[in-house]
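quick q for whoever's on today - can somebody do inverse folding on this one?? i tried earlier but teh output was garbage lol. tokens:
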């Protein structure tokens, strides 16, 4: 059905739980303190060989701790959960032994639509027929259930649901394999997508229009060549070509004006003299 696997749970790092750390099972029982999953967090989830014991797994982890192991070395007050081909056993790590406990995993009851390890005849939204739980896995204090179609069995892909009935994995033929476990972890801790560099997403013209402030937008409208270019930049029209001509000196212009005035004055004086000569001749 699914590959054998195990999980290591350790007490959460909370001030109110310090008095439970490294205490033996007998000490907890004497004080009537139950071992509850709500006080623990999962620090490792891995595969195991069928038939392996908690003692063997502990020794293997002591020899070489996996890179994704997030806790301290296995010690008193830890909990180990072994799923050996669908047979789940929970152990409390005691000082010199492993004590089997039965009340650690408290799955959600079937009330309010919740799933349990005994759920049958369950209807999954968007899928035909009825489904039943054939395996379950505890990850970070939450239960996940492997659902098999009651009519078609293994001929139809399994579906993985969380304890509220939400589909986590829509299709799998290999039970709780590594790919499925990764999808479960991703659902608990969605990967954050970061923008690379300082690049900004490309905006449409209407978005640029809204992004531009009211004052700047008004100024731009008065100068823009057309309204589909209201984008925060004034006048997107192509610049007019300028004629390459040398700059004219103002002094030179004044001199030209003076010469023209003098020329006109000279012509006027000459006309007056010629007029006077003609009058003398007549006399």
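ok took a stab at it. sequence:
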């Amino acid at each position: 059905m699914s590959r054998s696997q195990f999980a290591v749970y350790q007490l959460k790092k909370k001030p109110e739980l310090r008095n439970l750390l490294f205490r033996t099972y007998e000490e907890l029982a004497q004080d009537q303190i139950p071992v509850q999953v709500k006080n623990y967090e999962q620090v490792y989830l891995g595969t195991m060989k069928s038939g392996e014991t908690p003692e063997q797994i502990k020794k293997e982890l002591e020899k070489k701790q996996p890179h994704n192991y997030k806790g301290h070395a296995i010690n008193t007050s830890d909990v180990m959960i072994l799923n050996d081909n669908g047979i789940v056993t929970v152990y409390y790590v005691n000082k010199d032994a492993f004590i089997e406990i039965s009340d650690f995993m408290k799955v959600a009851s079937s009330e309010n639509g919740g799933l349990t390890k005994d759920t049958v005849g369950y209807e999954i939204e968007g899928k035909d027929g009825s489904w039943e739980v054939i395996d379950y896995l505890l990850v970070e204090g939450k239960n996940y259930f492997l659902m098999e179609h009651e009519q078609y069995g293994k001929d139809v892909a399994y579906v993985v649901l969380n304890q509220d009935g939400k589909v986590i994995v829509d299709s799998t033929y290999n039970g709780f394999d590594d790919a499925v476990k990764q999808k479960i972890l991703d659902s608990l801790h969605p990967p954050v997508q970061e923008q690379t560099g300082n690049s900004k997403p490309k905006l449409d013209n209407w978005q640029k229009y809204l992004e531009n402030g009211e004052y700047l937008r008004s100024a731009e409208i008065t100068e823009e060549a057309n309204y589909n270019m209201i984008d925060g930049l004034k006048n997107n029209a192509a610049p007019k070509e300028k004629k390459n001509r040398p700059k004219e000196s103002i002094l030179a212009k004044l001199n030209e004006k003076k010469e023209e005035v003098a020329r006109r004055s000279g012509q006027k004086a000459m006309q007056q003299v010629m007029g006077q000569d003609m009058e003398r001749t007549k006399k």
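fwiw The CA atoms of residues 170 and 179 lie 12 Å apart. also Strands lie at 5-11, 40-47, 79-84, 87-93, 98-101, 131-139, 142-149, 158-162, 167-172. so keep that in mind when u check it
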